[in-house]
Protein 1
Amino acid sequence: MPFQVPRGTADLLPEDTRLWRYVESLIHRLCEKFNYEEIRTPMFEQTELFNRGVGETTDIVEKEMYTFQSRGGDSLTLKPEGTAPVVRSYVENKMYGDPNQPVKLYYVSPMFRYERPQAGRQRQFHQFGVEAIGSHDPAIDAEVISLAWSFFKELELSGLSLEINSVGCPTCRPLHREKLIQYLTPHKEELCKDCKSRLERNPLRILDCKVDRCREIVQHAPTITEYLCGECDSHFEQVKSYLDELGIPYLVNPRLVRGLDYYTRTSFEIMDESIGAKSTVCGGGRYNGLVKEIGGPDQPGIGFGLGLERLMLALKGKGIELPYPKGIDFYVIALGEAPARMRVKILQMLRAAGFRAETDYMERKMKAQLKAADRLGARYALILGDEELNQGIVQVKNLDNGEQQEVMIDHLIENCKELTKKNWEM
Ligand code: ATP
Ligand code: MG
């Protein structure tokens, strides 16, 4: 084979894009209902944005970024996640000054991370994400979680679990950090290389390590939940009570920490065990320190990132068929030169009226054209020969039951509408 897609990337072929478009349109409709507006940021940003916004001690910054030097000498990075770019844009465009607060944004975008490819883990993947910036209200935490939850619900994906936690704030974290270091230090030699260096730099990150031995060790580590300050504790209680109000089931997982440094307070993940080891489909939380870190005012935020490849795996794993339209409405068969000229007009009329219509461009015989129509899932064939043309009619053949009738070309569209309407009513 001369060329292949780069490792960790995939083509989305027509059979995939149909499904993807259906999911994307659901995203747009859902976000509209929740009053989130779409934002599109560039595919790459200054590398420094991610160093600061994601954090020097994260997997992303330590080993996963696609960083390159532009011809002008700037260091640029393909976006590995969506929050830092959205916050950069929020600050750059002074959205904190907008009278509509909080600022509620969403995106659907490719992301790039240099990872070891496996099912549900690619080097180019896609995320649907939302960010609500400017409010401390625990009700917005619940709204963000409920948006993700509604999304899965509308897709009829069941069997998902929601885990939540609070990771505290700069007031309560130092004490926990101290306790954590005390606990981990005797195990230092057993930790992986990354975690050894994280022990001093950012021990909280060790709780999120994927290495088996590290995971075992942290099983018994002191949890942040035991050290929450009064305000964080009360915030967490309110988020939970809002979720109860909404009837969204959750599990408190005191060991849940997000892999990104700027997270504060609410942290959550939505998992689907059916997709295997990489079961987290959606992860998010509060990032009260981020806007300031990126050079903006001290504004709080909360959001999530939801992996669309993993979502597709979950849909597939559960055998969920989405109701996107399959097949075309009309296949136009023209036999002879004059009819062949007429068919382009018929196609034009059908399409202008909103029908999905196709014809033959391969000089196939009549029988082969009917077969082609069948392959495309056409509901009707419109057949036009010299004789029909002379009489100003077309034969309309129902490809489900073989019934055929003549229709005046002058009234073709009305008749087609009538026919397809009847078919829908059945
Ligand atoms: P993981 O623990 O699986 O590495 P993460 O903590 O790095 O995930 P986030 O940065 O929170 O993930 O991204 C949010 C979501 O994006 C994940 O829950 C997942 O669904 C998806 N995602 C992350 N990395 C990848 C990837 N390399 N390929 C496909 N999807 C991904
Ligand atoms: Mg990761």
Protein 2
Amino acid sequence: MQIFTTISEMRQVRTDGLIPTMGALHEGHLSLVRAARAACETVTVSIFVNPTQFSAGEDLAKYPRTFEADCELLRAEGVDFVFAPSASEIYPAGAAGTLVEVPGIGQRLDGASRPGHFRGVATVVAKLFNIVQPRLAYFGQKDAAQVAVLRAMVRDLNLPAELRVCPTVRDTDGLALSSRNRFLNAAERRAAAAIPRALERARALVETGTCASETVRQAMLWELVALKVDYAQVVHPETLEPVNNVCPRALIAIAAWAGETRLIDNLLIEKPR
Ligand code: PAJ
């Protein structure tokens, strides 16, 4: 496995599959690596804690950095290349550089709670695509709004990479794996398990014929009483606009705080009419 820190080194190899990450790797990330490994000749994982997707007062400084352990995991998965650039390598113009904005979609869900977040995500992913030039790029369904933003960006800018979306990997209590879970104390961790429970409750309602988004929302809010809810919404999976009916297709998305830690999760409903 070769580790590159500069754009010029990265450009000297050919990548078939790219997995963009911010490091602090867990089984969720590794599921993307395995999907890429199974489908691609050469696999690159980027590790870059992207400053432009954090706003002032967010957890950029606190974001876990475990580079050595990450590289061990990636080596064991048979990854070919790791791209781990510095912030100045990616943003030589600093805050004055060109940004990629996905209007509308980029301002919904996490884009509403974290203004500028998806501008930072879209900008860095566009740059990574231009640097690495992958045929396929792998993302997790756990960040469903991120997927919607990136799909729109790829379409609007005619980027040649094809997006592949992999299912959310969960812990035994149902909580979606996240690098932020390590910040939860035991009580917060127990409380956080209400998030997947709320989504399961939503799934059960939909499976027994409930279609009204508001009914589903209220049932989820009951499960989430112990947490500070940022949003619990039923939206269109591509536009992220609220929809009145879960049927036949909707994204049910939750963001909630367990103590100081903001967690997100979602459920995609795809029911044949
Ligand atoms: P990061 O949070 O490191 O996540 C990297 C990729 O792993 C994302 O596509 C995310 O959806 C996926 N992922 C995280 N947890 C997962 C889980 N439990 N199951 C399945 N997939 C999971 O998302 C980012 O980084 C950044 O925004 C990035 C796209 C790298 C741009 O900076």
